[in-house]
């Protein structure tokens, strides 16, 4: 969708467009309220850093929409389609799949949530190294990293939806 068309959407139409980016009402509503945007870079910048960080409840709600890294998202929703596209470049042979499964289990045991990382543009080895590094984080540091990753995913999705 062209940015000018996005700027002119009703709030309800804009909400429907934005929800697959990240299922956080406050983020969606603040982005809608900040319209119009002059260009896609301004929109992306505001979506990335112009809205206050996600709180723990927002993170929990948004993470419910994300599959484990290395697992194919199920269903026909826009969110599932986007997730499949983001993880499409991962090389998932038997060894990589087993290693990602073990990394996911270690992470979930440590932090009691799904390991979230922006997969787009990263190799399987990079993702595994990041999971290993993040396992050493304390809870507050990891919560901040999850919020950053979620925001990066949301902005990537937003950029796929909106053109100049």
UniProtKB/TrEMBL annotation:
Gene3D superfamilies: Oxo-4-hydroxy-4-carboxy-5-ureidoimidazoline decarboxylase. Pathway: Purine metabolism; urate degradation; (S)-allantoin from urate: step 3/3. Keywords: Decarboxylase, Lyase, Purine metabolism. Pfam families: OHCU_decarbox. The keyword Magnesium does not apply. Its EC number is 4.1.1.97. This is 2-oxo-4-hydroxy-4-carboxy-5-ureidoimidazoline decarboxylase. Residues 7-159 form the Oxo-4-hydroxy-4-carboxy-5-ureidoimidazoline decarboxylase domain. One of its GO terms (molecular function) is 2-oxo-4-hydroxy-4-carboxy-5-ureidoimidazoline decarboxylase activity. It comes from the Bacteria. It catalyses: 5-hydroxy-2-oxo-4-ureido-2,5-dihydro-1H-imidazole-5-carboxylate + H(+) = (S)-allantoin + CO2. NCBIfam families: PRK13798.1, UraD_2. The keyword rRNA-binding does not apply. Coiled coil: none annotated. InterPro entries: OHCU_decarboxylase (IPR018020), OHCU_decarboxylase-2 (IPR017595), OHCU_decarboxylase_sf (IPR036778). SUPFAM superfamilies: UraD-Like. GO terms for biological process: purine nucleobase metabolic process; urate catabolic process.
